[in-house]
Amino acid sequence: MKLRTTLPLLAVALFATSAQAYDADWKRGRIYYRSVCTSCHVASPIGQINPSGKTKAEWAAYFQADKHAKGKESVKQYVSKDYRAKIKASNKAAEKFADVPEQELLEDVKFFLQRGAKDGEAPASCS
Ligand code: HEC
Q1: Ligand 1 proximity of 44 Cβ (cutoff 6 Å)
Q2: Cα-flanking dihedrals φ and ψ of residue 52, to 5°?
Q3: For ligand 1, atom 19, which residue shows the shortest CA distance?
């Protein structure tokens, strides 16, 4: 095979293995959800949003659609490094996890919500 064809294939293979290799940390996801997501929800008119308010499938679909606040914006922006940098002066979790890669933190939060879902292994409230 020519280098031009092998290199992209190699890149895809490496990406696939590294994506799989990440073992989501639901405890870190729980801290982040409770400190960042929940603290804003309780301050907003919406109030607490319990993980156990949705099923695993509903949470998966929610992140797949990536529509937050009735579709006005992305939900993923709230795990971004930019967002963490913006709030870290007043938010301990955002400060503690300031340098965690965005994709990992997203997987952590998703994993916590899967575990804490109505039909998850440990249905959870948000505080
Ligand atoms: C800066 C404030 C803020 C942050 C941070 C935030 N949310 Fe929200 N969220 C809201 C508001 C406000 C609503 C209600 C919007 C409405 O009903 O008009 C909402 C609604 C929701 C809803 C209900 C469905 C919907 O989208 O309308 C879910 C689920 C949700 N947020 C999940 C999350 C998750 C997960 C995170 C963290 C990764 C997060 N939110 C971070 C403000 C925030």
Answers
A1: yes
A2: -75, 0
A3: 69
Asked if 124 and 115 count as a contact pair (C-beta separation under 8 A), the reply is yes
Name the residue with the closest Cα to ligand 1, atom 40: 37
pLDDT in tens, the chain (127 residues): 666 776 666 666 666 655 557 999 999 999 999 999 999 999 998 999 999 999 999 999 999 999 999 999 999 999 999 999 999 999 999 999 999 999 999 999 999 999 999 999 999 886 6
Residue nearest ligand 1's atom 15 by CA: 69
Ligand 1 center to 37 CA (angstroms): 7
By C-alpha distance, which of 120, 97, 95 is closest to 110?
120
Q: Output b/e per residue, 70-79; b: 16+ Cβ within 10 A.
A: eeeeebbebb
